[in-house]
UniProtKB/TrEMBL annotation:
PANTHER family xrefs: DUS-LIKE FMN-BINDING DOMAIN-CONTAINING PROTEIN, TRNA-DIHYDROURIDINE SYNTHASE
Source species of the chain: Companilactobacillus suantsaicola
Functional description taken from the UniProt entry: Catalyzes the synthesis of 5,6-dihydrouridine (D), a modified base found in the D-loop of most tRNAs, via the reduction of the C5-C6 double bond in target uridines.
Binding site for FMN: 84, 152, 181, 242-243
One matching Pfam family: Dus
Lineage of the organism: Bacteria, Bacillati, Bacillota, Bacilli, Lactobacillales
EC number(s) reported in the record: 1.3.1.-
The DUS-like FMN-binding domain, residue ranges: 24-253
GO MF term set: flavin adenine dinucleotide binding; tRNA binding; tRNA dihydrouridine synthase activity
Protein name: tRNA-dihydrouridine synthase
Length: 329
């Protein structure tokens, strides 16, 4: 275990409130400073993860997968995210985590679960499931920084049964937190998450690394669903929500409170403002990347289908604001 008490503090606080801790998943072009602030305004989880960061790019700006704005922290953010790293070079993880520590980050996560073809081709994500011998050196490289170290993974590459060997391999690293997406790489998100293996994962954790916190991910859409799942599986410490935030930005809020269309559209206005501000720092954000978010706010069940159709035809953030003004006034 590392010297950092980042995850143990989060777990203890949640346990005192008789609930699991909640995190927002690392998602490319989603988990950046802009959307983290939107979700925090709605209702913040206990911790955020960053977008995927190529370990080498942290100290080498000339890689083909540059950091760009992935490590940018808006001054208005109250907490730095957990930085998720990918790649397979221990020296890059070592230099990268040392730099992150100097910048005030408290925790890093090793990506062994991404199913993206480009990531796999470049020896990251689920490539590591097929090359488990590389994990030892990557974890050791991260631990030398004394940051909190976690791993995010899937049950296996091709078959669910692979978890019987793969998960013990990861638990033997004695990291602070292990997050398991309850599907294989080949399953992507095309099948229901395998909740049936949670108790076995807990048993493996208790036998091999009882000090390692266990978190699961997959088909958990909101706070209530996460609390229910944790009650059904005693020993489960945390819940990670990914696609649930596209159902509602209030995914982490207790109580399933109803929210009006105006509340949602005001969050969209906040995202527009943050996006425009972010774009002054980095050239990478493109307006087209915003369009995937419109469905979060202009929802069919709130009578906003026509509004959403207009929003997706907009060409820039100012046009979106004008469409919102016309609709709300």
């Amino acid at each position: 275990m590392t010297e950092s008490n980042f995850w143990s503090d989060i777990a203890q606080t949640a346990k005192a409130q008789n609930r699991p801790f909640f995190t927002m998943a690392p998602m490319e072009a989603v988990s950046n400073t802009v959307f983290r602030q939107v979700v925090a305004k709605a209702y913040a989880p206990d911790a955020f993860f960053s977008e995927f960061v190529y370990a080498k790019s942290i100290t080498d700006p000339n890689t083909k997968f540059p950091v760009d704005g992935r490590l940018y922290i808006d001054p208005r953010e109250t907490k730095k995210p957990v930085v998720q790293l990918w790649g397979d070079s221990p020296i890059d993880y070592q230099t990268g985590t040392n730099f992150l520590k100097e910048q005030g980050f408290k925790a890093v996560d090793i990506n062994t679960g991404c199913p993206d073809k480009t990531v796999i081709k470049n020896h990251g994500g689920t490539y590591l499931i097929s090359n488990p011998e590389k994990v030892d050196d990557l974890v050791a490289a991260c631990k030398q920084s004394n940051l909190a170290v976690s791993i995010k993974t899937r049950l296996g590459y091709s078959k669910v049964s692979e978890y019987h060997n793969w998960i013990p391999k990861l638990l033997s690293q004695h990291v602070d937190l292990l997050t398991v997406h309850l599907r294989t790489k080949m399953e992507m998100s095309k099948v229901p998450a395998h909740f049936e293996v949670i108790d076995d994962l807990i048993k493996l954790r208790n036998e091999i690394a009882p000090e390692t916190l266990l978190q699961v991910n997959g088909d958990i859409l909101n706070y209530q669903a996460g609390v229910t799942l944790a009650k059904e599986h005693p020993g489960l410490d945390g819940i990670m929500i990914g696609r649930g935030v596209f159902t509602t930005p209030f995914a982490f809020e207790p109580g399933n409170k109803p929210h009006s269309l105006d509340e949602l559209l005001n969050l969209l206005r906040l995202q527009l403002d943050l996006f425009d501000d972010f774009s002054t720092h980095y050239d990478t954000p493109r307006f087209v990347s915003l369009k995937r978010f419109f469905k979060i706010y202009a929802r069919d069940e709130l009578g906003a289908t026509d509004l959403r159709n207009k929003l997706v035809r907009a060409n820039n953030s100012q046009e979106v604001r004008q469409i919102l003004d016309d609709f709300q006034n």
